[in-house]
Amino acid sequence: MINTIEEFYGKTPLTDGISPVQNTAERPVSGYGYVILSREASRANYIENCLRNNIITIITDKNEVIRNCSVTEDAWNYIKFPKTIRSKGSCVIWKCPPRTNRTTVIATVTKRDELQAVRRENTFRMCRESELGTILIEGNVDKGTLNFFVDSDIENGAQVSLRILNTLIEGLLDIYIQGSLKIEVDDSLKIKIKNTLKTEFIDEFNPTVKTTFNYTLSEGYTMEDEFGNQIIVNQDGISATVPEGKKIILQGATANQNAVLGQNLVSLIQELIGKINQLTVMTPSGQSSVPLNILDFTLISQKASVILSQINFLS
Predict the structure, then answer these.
(1) Torsion of CA 89, 31, 125, 150, to 10 degrees
(2) Residue 121 has pLDDT above 80, yes or no
(3) What is the pLDDT of residues 233-268, one digit of tens each?
(4) 198 pLDDT higher than 50
């Protein structure tokens, strides 16, 4: 039974883990122990030094202290430091081969009170917790499930980042789902694209039947559907095209009024006014003259083009 931690502070350690003193045959070559802190520095500074130099201090099952123990990469994933100098952290397995003094922590042993859930065949579970948050990865091969859970109590916490980088060619993230994709966002969804966004809706049994949405930065947006409708948005404005005999309906689906062709309307108004200016009728005293206010009609004819829009065009 390991004594209380306080009994070992100030005691000369068995080894500092990296000194020239070799491990004699009388000394154990392996064993288990617990991660402890140091009285020589604050907890934060001590842990930072351990992580930076890949070393920890342990108290062994033989009531010995070993400083500067190296730690394997796999073991680091499960190392937990104690909260105070009076408590113990992760239970670890260490080795120190004979005639060397290189003590290395090669694995951790899960404490009984650290078990996250009942273990089942064909499942795995990785969990790290602290006072500020939890990260959990678990999977079940039999059910075909993989779950990621990230929780944090600090501001701007709970972040998951995925980066695919390649200095020679473009990186690729290829996702295929034989089913549905569900994305639920409580606040806002932001997608940042540096060049081109391409989206296609394709008929599984007839790939030629599809709707495409394309947007290229500084060039514009195009949409073309399986019905032959096309919308183009670029620096020149908006262009909407439909197949012969189809309609473009504005102001709601219940609209039933035909749009007017502006140039045709102006020509018709000018032709009508021209006929009015030539209007004569028969009277008892003979044929009348043209209208006395013919100048007014002429001015109206000249202003007829003001009804033409400079933005909206029809065909």
Answers:
(1) 30
(2) yes
(3) 999 888 998 998 888 877 777 777 777 888 898 999
(4) yes
User: Which pLDDT belongs to residue 116?
Assistant: 53
Q: What's the topology of domain 5-112?
A: OB fold (Dihydrolipoamide Acetyltransferase, E2P) (2.40.50)
Distance CA 273, CA 293 (A): 12
Contact 245, 287 (CB under 8 A): no
Cβ atoms within 10 A of the Cβ of 287, count? 8
Phi, psi values for residue 269, rounded to 5°: -65, -45
H or E, element range at 107: strand 104-109
Query: How many CA atoms within 13 Å lie on the side-chain side of 16?
Result: 5
Q: What share of the chain is helix, strand, coil (3-state, %, to 5)?
A: 15, 30, 55
Q: How many Å apart are CA 65 and CA 46, to the nearest integer?
A: 16
List alpha helices for 32-80, DSSP H: 43-53, 73-76
DSSP 305: G
Cβ neighbors of 169 (< 8 A, separation 6 or more) are: none
Whole-angstrom Cα distance, residue 35 to residue 46? Answer: 12
d(Cα 229, Cα 223) in Å, to the nearest integer?
8
Average pLDDT over residues 90-113: 82
Strand partners, 152: 133
Is pLDDT of 169 > 70?
Answer: yes
pLDDT of residue 222 exceeding 90: yes
H-helix or E-strand spanning residue 147: strand 145-152
Name the DSSP class of 97.
-
Mean pLDDT of 57-68: 86
Mean pLDDT of 44-63: 90
- Encoding tokens for residue 310? 């400079």
